[in-house]
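Anyone opening a protein record will find just a pair of labelled lines. The record below illustrates this layout.
***
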Amino acid sequence: MKKKIIVFGIVYLILTVGIIFMMRNFDNLSMISNISFLGIIILLIPIIAYLIFNKKRKQTLIVGVPVLVMYAASIFIIHLFNPQILRDTYIPISYKPFNWEHNISNQSSELNIILEKVEEIDRIQSIAIIQNGKLKAEKYYHGASENNAFNVRSVTKTVISLLIGIAIEENIIDSLNQPIVDFFPEFKGMVNDERKLKITVKDLLTMKAGFAYDCYDCTEHLFTQVPLINEPGKTFLYSNVSFNLLSEIIHRQSKKNTIDYATEKLFKPLGIQTTKWNELTSGTSTGADGLYLATHDMARIGYLMLNHGEIDSLTIVPKDWIKKMLIDYNQNKNDDWVYGPTDSYIEKGYGLGVWITETKGHNTYTARGHGGQMIHVIPDKELVIAITQKDLFMRPNEHIDKPDLLFKIFDTFIKEINY
């Protein structure tokens, strides 16, 4: 009896520690729940086996069931009451990020004080502020530096939208209204709902495809099994898988992986780089998240959008596409995903892969990602703010990138930067 308790206890401990370790180290957060349930199944198998083949079934139940319950309870506690777990989300880089012309000499003493005070926030990693095309201020925190590239999480979605605009301009995608089944003909006769034949590129970009749940890396499953909860094109529902599909479309139509297409069509013309972009099981770059960028390079993307897709008289993204990106298509807002209001910042709606926001009464827009990664653009002040933060794990479905401290940063910055 004692040996069985020890064995089950050791297995329980290993699996629980394993879950916590993977929570700290896996990029794909959706795996956490799957791993948790897998752990329960792993424990359940020997218990069932003992019940079937062991004559001492009563002892097995006495030992096994409490251990299983303890493990299930611990997983529940990890998910429900999990303390905030911070982890660095950057990698070292050997290349030089974009070299902004500096305008730091006239930086106000108030702004310096703010930048120093921000270090008290243990999540913050970097801030870069670009105004009138020049670097007005920057600071790195808690071990991060300009020689790091950060996982920008869902800021990746904005990059995907820019690439879709380029692809449409190059006629490798017909238009926003092209049905996505055109790009996946192998699934056309396998859809479990005929309405899926009507889902368009625009529906994916505006998060209005209508999928009932977000299965992330599941292209075939999406066409053949995932039900529709809304009519395509009608209702906003936050969706990672939609942008993974868009990345696959870019890959299929350009005959290049998304990272290569982005490097050629977007990054090189902007003077920026990346050496890491996470992949789906198909090998295609993820579209929902997983792109790594230096903070200076994040700001460069914001600056491109601020300048309507043109840099140094070179049109990189069609001006008309940037205009379309910044229209609020979210007529039926899902308040669970619309942040604010605060004194400085409110998300009013969603465009094509970008949040339509308001900042201190100014019309703004924001690319934002899990954990507080952000490119925030204030057009009438010629201002771009790039922010990266550490990953923050919290209980399921709680918005990880909704920290009050982030809004306090905005409150202070917006008051001090030439307002």
About this structure: The chain is about 40% helix and 15% strand. Residues 23-33, 393-403 have pLDDT under 50 and may be disordered. The longest strand covers residues 124-131.
